[in-house]
Design a protein that fits this description.
Strand order of the largest sheet: 1-2-3
CATH architecture of the domain at 3-95: 2-Layer Sandwich
Strand content: 5-15%
Radius of gyration: 28 Å
Largest sheet: 3 strands, antiparallel
Number of strands: 3
Helix content: 40-55%
Structural class: alpha+beta
Order of helices and strands: HEHEHEHH
Amino acid sequence: MNKEEIIKELNFKATRSSGAGGQHVNKVSSKVELTFDLSNSNALSDKEKELLIEKLSSRLTKENILILFCDESRSQHKNKDLIIKKFLELLSQNLVRPKKRRPTKPSISAIQKRIDSKQRNAEKKSLRKKPNHD
């Protein structure tokens, strides 16, 4: 994954931010919308694309386009920097494959704890029975 190539493939669009802010918010387009076409990206390998499409499926459009917004700052430039940073973090988090679990046997002490716990529960439940008066 080459960050410079990926950043070149990003599309940005500035729109008016929502919410309070008065005249400033009505006149200035400070909200930044980032779009990234995952399917047609040349910066990612096919395996990386498949992995990202699988992991980010809930955030993608039908055409496998990722859309992110940022309107945290009053400045369009800050919002653009923030959204790029957020996008790169999202990619790096979702490109990491989890380590494969190696099956291990439970330790002797863990087995003993489990058996003791079962015996205590059995004893507790047996005390709930009505006593037998033969």
